[in-house]
Amino acid sequence: MAFLEQTFFNIAYPLRLLYWFVFRPRTQSVKCLIEYDGKLLLVRSRYWRRYWTLPGGRIRIQTPFEESPVDAAKRELREVVGLTADPLVYLGIYDTGRHFLKDSVFCFYGKVDTAALSPHGVEILEARWFLKNALPYPQSPTIGNVLRLYTYFKSRSETAVRR
Q1: Is 2-162 a domain of CATH 3.30.450.20?
Q2: Is Hydrolase there in the keyword field (predicted)?
Q3: Which of 26, 126, 136, 142 fits a disulfide with 44 by CB distance 3.0 to 4.6 angstroms?
Q4: CA-based angle 49:50:54, to the nearest 5?
């Protein structure tokens, strides 16, 4: 069954890229900066360039599956790597034009109390924890975007505490 799922996914992804190229849809997605014991969680997907990136995915915006960005982030963490992070802190949003999409990316930060991962085999090639100062390459530009939001958020939080 996993073979059929993987084969379908490998065929469907290029078709999805073609659809995006022709119609240039506007989408919304989430990315999660997840920390455990001073390490950050990164994943490599089985499709596209196999860059290291942060776990995340699309926000479901059609009824009956409509969800908020934070609900989408929790769902994606559960589906992609089998983790639950509660609470998730909203870091901010940025827009990107990758893969012919106009995508708004909602970014969240959370901590977990376990290092145990169960990556989704069809979609995720690998999931690992990395020290903040030793992130692997090649990596998606998403990592830099979210880390900048996190650094800004953290500096604002520390400034508020000092007042």
Answers
A1: no
A2: yes
A3: 126
A4: 115
Claim: this prediction has a pTM higher than 0.85: no
Picking from 47, 163, 38, 158, the residue whose alpha carbon sits closest to that of residue 99 is 47
Closest CA to 135 of 42, 56, 67: 42
3-state DSSP helix/strand/coil % of the chain, to nearest 5 = 35, 30, 35
CA-CA distances (angstroms) from residue 118 to 45, 78, 80, 123, 129? Answer: 14, 9, 8, 12, 13
Query: pLDDT per residue over 124-149, tens digit each?
Result: 999 999 999 999 999 999 999 999 99
Q: How many residues does the chain have?
A: 163
CA distance 52 to 22: 27
Tell me the CA distances in angstroms from 137 to 5, 28, 94, 110, one per residue in order. Answer: 28, 26, 22, 23
- Determine the Cα–Cα distance for residues 47 and 117; give it in Å rounded to an integer: 20
Parse the chain into domains and list their residue ranges. Answer: 2-162
State pLDDT tens for residues 54-113. 999 999 987 677 899 999 999 999 999 999 998 999 999 998 876 677 889 999 999 999
